[in-house]
Amino acid sequence: MPKEITPFEKLVYAACQKIPRGRISTYAEIARYIKNSKSARAVGNALNRNPYAPKVLCHRVVRSDGTVGGFVHGEKKKIEILKKENVAIKNGRVVDFDKVFCVIQ
DNA sequence: GTGTTGACCACAG
DNA sequence: GCTGTGGCCAACA
Predict the structure, then answer these.
(1) What's the confidence (pLDDT) of residue A55?
(2) Is any atom of nucleic acid chain C found less than 7 Å from the CB of residue A90?
(3) Are strands A89-90 and A93-94 parallel, antiparallel or unpaired?
(4) CA of A30 to C1' of C2 (A)
(5) Among A3, A12, A63, A93, which one is least packed by beta carbons within 10 Å?
(6) pLDDT string in tens for chain A (105-residue length)
(7) In the Cβ-directed half-sphere of A17, how many Cα atoms lie within 13 Å?
(8) DSSP 8-state symbol, A22
(9) Strand B proximal residues, A:5-44, Cβ < 7 Å
(10) Do strands A25-26 and A61-62 pair parallel, antiparallel, or not at all (unpaired)?
(11) Which CATH number fits domain A7-98: 3.30.413.10, 2.60.40.10, 1.10.10.10, 3.20.20.70?
């Protein structure tokens, strides 16, 4: 049976799906898209619970520093996925972060 | 209602 | 480059 999620999480997942392929975004950007605030923690919290991990594009969300942050399947797996999306990763960090970074519209 | 925790961010040292 | 501290917001005990 479907798990009940809060409207906040719903917005977070929608923002993840709004990211085009081959691009990534940050927790802060998603938080800004939702509430125009710096509550990146709330976004990370929603994705941490992530009841629909493979359904949402949470792997396209990284930290402001360009680090992959965390992932349910592991950072290593997240890097593998991003590399398949034509996103260069090096030493656990996004190489062309500015090039692949995309603002939520 | 209060306190803790969390896939965070920014700044200071 | 790293660590520590303060701050922000949401969910949970």
Answers:
(1) 72
(2) no
(3) antiparallel
(4) 27
(5) A3
(6) 556 788 899 999 999 999 999 999 999 999 999 988 889 999 999 998 876 766 788 999 999 999 999 998 889 999 999 999 999 999 999 999 999 999 999
(7) 11
(8) T
(9) 26-28, 38, 40-44
(10) parallel
(11) 1.10.10.10
Question: At A19, is the secondary structure helix, strand, or coil?
Answer: coil
What six digits make up the tokens of A50? 């992530």
First CA to last CA distance, chain A: 32
How is residue A49 written in tokens? 């619970």
Residue A58 annotated in active site: yes
